[in-house]
Amino acid sequence: MNKNFWHNKNIFVTGASGFLGSWLIKELLSFGARITVIIRDYEAHSNFYQFGFDKKVNIVNGDLINFLLLSRIFNEYEIDTCFHLAAQPLVPTANRSPLSTFESNIRGTWNVLEAARKNPLKPKVVIASSDKAYGSSNNLPYTENQLLKGDYPYDVSKSCTDILAQSYYKTYKLPVTISRCGNFYGGGDTNWSRIVPGTFKSIIFNENPIIRSDGKLIRDYFFVKDVVSAYLALGEGMDDESIHGEAFNFGTETPISVIDLVNNMINISGKKNLKPEILGKNHGEILEQYLSSKKAYRVLGWSPKYSLEHGLIQSFEWYKDFFNKI
Question: How far is CA 69 from the centre of its chain?
Fold first, then answer.
């Protein structure tokens, strides 16, 4: 990661008040980047506001479905690189309301890509896809040359996001790259339906953690600081045109079951009297998902720095501090 690379660059971040967006902005600001964001909703507990980033960046209020607004942002702020992170990120929410998820995740993406394509400065675009874009497969770990074939609404939205980005490169040579990450976690994620924040919340309040599934789902959990370093490595790598149009998997290559993850979190907390309550409601979720990150290691020189235990310890401290404050 080259800190000087981002100094005085004009960066556009979508999803800025979201979990990952806040951490990415924190790092970019420390490197001296000039940042513009688009904000639809005010999220009081977001790190974006807790860290005071709303006083340090250019804020445009609006929605990704407003194409003319996106075009204005790229033009007036002379954007060099866009990190397109904004999405409806929750699988259960997508299952309940697929149309709003498709609107945010698919239409929002084609608007960003088209606004970038029409801008004469030809900004670079880093697109947030997901391991969910691959769909279910018996061929694991996923590698970047596998077909994208999401089955459930969220997965389909990410398959479409990914393919749209590839199409804009192949058709228009738009400088775009694609990030496919595993499940990331860390301080600042307040979507309590997710397994890490939900479990830590239960533990802090001395309640047995709830596991919505049967506990056997296998995932690769990825600390948010490593996710940020992956996105920055991808953005920096785009000076090499050979990676334009390419997708990269990012993860730790250490998959773990949900039940083992929750038990690890209980052990870290020291509250070993707590026991997980397993609901066994697995509808609309893939059983096993984990990634090979060998391409990122080989091409970008990127590798994760945090073990699962180290990341969970840091996260637990953040959640304890969060609940103490409120």
Answer: 23
Catalytic site positions: 154
Amino acid making up residue 220: D
Asked whether the beta carbons of 265 and 313 are under 8 A apart, the reply is no
Residues in the chain: 326
Q: 201-243 pLDDT, tens per residue?
A: 999 999 999 998 899 999 999 999 999 999 999 999 999 999 9
d(CA 54, CA 320): 24
Neighbours of 4 (CB within 10 A): 8
**φ, ψ dihedrals at 133, nearest 5°:** -65, -25
Distance, in Å, from the CA atom of 246 to the CA atom of 299, rounded to the nearest integer, reads: 11
Look up residue 114 and give its amino acid: E
Superfamily of segment(s) 3-185+221-254+288-305: NAD(P)-binding Rossmann-like Domain (3.40.50.720)
pTM (two decimals): 0.95
